[in-house]
Design goal:
With 145 residues, this protein is mainly α. The chain is built from six helices and no strands. The mean pLDDT is 83.
């Protein structure tokens, strides 16, 4: 690669950029655009274009709020979040927990749920009558004639 190659590349980039920007400067649609006088909004467009407006100044920028934490506090909070994430990954890594001792947990849950039901309570006459009524309601209506 010759020593002139970077210079040629730079000149080519500058020439392309100048051509593109020159094309934009030649025809600006915001300056050359016109409104059809027969349009129903032509009068309103002309009035809005001629209207004098008060544009904001630097004095209109509100002051910095006092109830926002300082910038370094955001960084510290982000660092704390990173540390908590690493700790969570370390604590839940494969091999750090097992599913042993579930019998005691299940026994406590059964005790809190109350006495177990046996199979005979679910086949009482009231239950069967309820099931029969629900099956009757679930039968689709006959097709229309």
């Amino acid at each position: 690669m010759s020593r002139l190659e970077p210079l040629r590349t730079s000149l080519l980039v500058c020439a392309c950029a100048a051509a593109m920007l020159g094309g934009c400067a030649i025809s600006n649609p915001f300056v050359t655009a016109s409104v059809d006088p027969a349009s129903p909004i032509a009068a309103e467009v002309a009035a809005k274009a001629r209207a004098s407006r008060n544009y904001p100044t630097f004095a209109d920028i509100p002051s910095v709020p006092s109830d926002v934490r300082p910038l370094p506090a955001f960084g510290r909070a982000a660092d704390e979040l990173e540390v908590a994430g690493v700790e969570l990954v370390r604590e839940t890594a494969p091999g750090t927990w097992t599913l042993t001792g579930t019998e005691a947990f299940a026994g406590r849950a059964r005790d809190m749920a109350g006495p177990e039901t046996t199979g005979s309570e679910s086949t009482t006459a009231a239950t069967e009558a309820f099931a029969k009524a629900q099956r009757a309601r679930a039968t689709p209506p006959p097709p229309p004639r």
